[in-house]
Amino acid sequence: MNSRPEAPEHAEENGQGGIARTRSVLARLVLLSVIVLLLGQIVVAALAVTGFEKALEPQLSQKAGAVGKAVADQIEFVVDELQIPPDELVGVTPFLEKILRSNADIEYLLVVNPSSEVQFASGLSPEALERIVPHLPDANSARGSTSEVADFINSVFPIAADGRVVTVLHVGVSGEYVRGRLTDLLYEAITVIVVSLLVTLEILMFLMSVRVSGPLERIEAMLADGTQGVFVNRLAMRARDEIGDLVAALNRALRGLRQHYEDFHFDVREIQDAQIDRGIVGRIRAACQPVEERYKFTGGEELRPRNAMQIRVPLFLFMFAEELPRSFLPLFIARLSPTDAGISDELLFGLPITLFMLAGMLAVPIGGGLADRFGARRVFLAGIVPATIGYFGTFLAQGYYDFVAWRILSGVGYGLIFISAQAWVADNTGERNRAQGMAVFVGGVFAATICGPSIGGIFADRIGFEATFLISAGLAGISGVLVYAMLDRTVSGRTKHGTVLGGREWRILVSDVRLFAVAVFAAIPGKLILAGFLFYLVPLYLSELGTRQSVIGWMIMLYGVSTLLCMPLASRFADRSGRHATVVAAGGLAAGLGCLAILIDDAVGGPSGAVMIAILALGFGHALALTSQIAIVQEVASRHGGIGQASAIGAYRLVERAGMVLGPIVAAALAASFGYRGAIVGIGVIVLVCIALYAVMLYLSRSASAVGGSEMA
């Protein structure tokens, strides 16, 4: 009795220490697995790039030889059989240009007489001709022989008539082409390494959390309850592994304890019934009462290992499916767009993206109410149906308007799944680990943002746009199967997720200058530049520059990478400095100025380099702004009595999504007037103007507060 009051405290300390040790071991295992995987992938990628480099040049030479032989034979037939002199041939240059258009890896085709005078040429500028012709091999070279001329691999095909060489065909393959293909391969190798690492981490974290750390934390909690005399619960887990054996042994021990306790009570009742003296019966009851007060064996439940990580893999798979078409979606829309719609092509390209965002925005509050009533699991499964059908319908789409309809259907599913996943996290976390749970949710979304566009670009290059949508449909269906199999079927009513907001929330949003400034002049422009610049303008502009889909996807991936890497440092700096409003302004300033890098693209490696800088700046700016915006919303909510932080964040999120809806339309309108390059600059200017208005409103608000405070004083 004398040491009993200290037991709960020691149990809690031991439990927390055990959990910390478990997580430390799991972190080391994950790190070791990642290192081994990374080393193996780097070795395989290096071997692949080296082998590709060795094999590409001979294959290009063979390709040049095949093309050169076919062209030389046709010219030789005309010159030798038809007896038409080479300098009298007609239509040779258009013929050569057609050959070049059909063979992108061949740089030039030249017909040169034995005196080194160019008769016909295609693929080179006059300046390049002057530089190359003096170094071409002479007419006596063997047919099909190759040599390096300037930066090209040149193949020679003498053309004879009446037994003598009358002209020579030169076929050139650019060394730049070889280097370009190697660069593309390097991008794809890096992309595959990054994506496979992230996918491996997702699976490892899921397995460790659901199969190891989650059950161990439950076991430690049950053992901690046991030190306080509570033996009412049992853990439901049927895994056939070491953890499953441990759970089964613990459940058997608990059943044995309960059986001994029941046997003890049965024996006590028999002894009581055998007594005639009521005083003895009272003393027996008094002796048993401390045992009944100290130990508890009834009234428990069957516990299931539930935590936020259970939703992460299904959420990651679905978001990955949605992000796959990100790098080519506007290009696919452009292919389907009608020519007689009566509005500009740019607006046609942006309208399906806007309608998708709008459908998702409207589905979120509906999904929140459904999650309150039916549970997050059922709403997630319900959202999978329209999303998967929408992806599959997009794969089958034959025209613009049915494509728009399928994308709207996918948007409804997206909104339902987004809010249901967030609801599951809220249901399965408490006040002490709510932030960690939301980090699980945000981490899954950002991991998909990194993986999806890059792999989707590679798929688009290899198998086409339509087949990539079919893969999205398959991944979305798999995510639904995982949710059905792994998530608990019980309906939780602990947390309200509905985002149907009352008039008080909106009045505070409008009347509070600080909250209004953050929502309208920081949050909306932040989402506007994300949807308008990254989702709409980047694919179209880079495609106009001739960039391959795999490279476009790799560049879009940089947004997620930069955001994910910078966000922990940005949030830590904002919390320590306490200047959340200033950090939000700095984030918007970085994003807006990044778009203006297009104006100095010659100084930063060309248009592609400028776009890369703008994407990195956008990721850095959002890393600064996002967490500080939420902190400001929570601070404002705490100042106003009667409004919860969840309601304030719900109103803020709903307003913020308006930027996603407006982004593609604003970008399309700017592109129709100023082109894609001008539209990027225009988006940056809009963001900078909004940030300036945000700063002015905050300054006026602080000035008014200072004046009000002095008057009260």
Describe the structure.
This protein is mainly α. The protein has 3 domains: 1-185, Beta-Lactamase; 309-489, Up-down Bundle (Growth Hormone, Chain: A); 503-707, Growth Hormone, Chain: A (Up-down Bundle). It is 75% helix and 5% strand. It has 19 helices and 7 strands. The strands form 2 sheets. The protein has a 5-stranded antiparallel sheet. Helix 4 (175-227) packs antiparallel against helix 12 and helix 15 packs antiparallel against helix 16. The radius of gyration is 34 Å and the shape is elongated. The two termini are 59 Å apart. The model is unreliable at 1-15 and 709-713 (pLDDT under 50).
Helix-strand topology string: HHEEHEEEHEHHEHHHHHHHHHHHHH
Instruction: Write down the overall mean pLDDT.
Output: 80
Structural domain tally: 3
Q: Label the structural class.
A: mainly alpha
- What share of residues is helical? over 70%
CATH domain class of the largest domain:
Mainly Alpha
N→C terminal distance: 59 Å
Major sheet: arrangement of strands: 2-1-5-4-3
Main traits of this protein?
disordered N terminus, Beta-Lactamase, Growth Hormone, Chain: A, mainly alpha, 713 residues, single chain, 3 domains
Write the layout of secondary structure elements.
Blueprint: H1 7-81, H2 92-102, E1 108-112, E2 118-122, H3 126-132, E3 146-149, E4 152-161, E5 164-174, H4 175-227, E6 234-235, H5 242-274, H6 278-294, E7 302-303, H7 312-323, H8 329-336, H9 345-374, H10 376-396, H11 400-427, H12 434-463, H13 465-486, H14 503-511, H15 513-544, H16 549-577, H17 580-595, H18 607-639, H19 645-712
Parallel strand pairs: 6-7
Antiparallel strand pairs: 1-2, 1-5, 3-4, 4-5
Helix pairs in contact: 1-4, 4-12, 7-12, 7-13, 8-9, 9-10, 9-11, 9-19, 10-11, 10-13, 11-12, 12-13, 12-16, 14-15, 15-16, 15-17, 15-18, 15-19, 16-18, 17-18, 17-19, 18-19
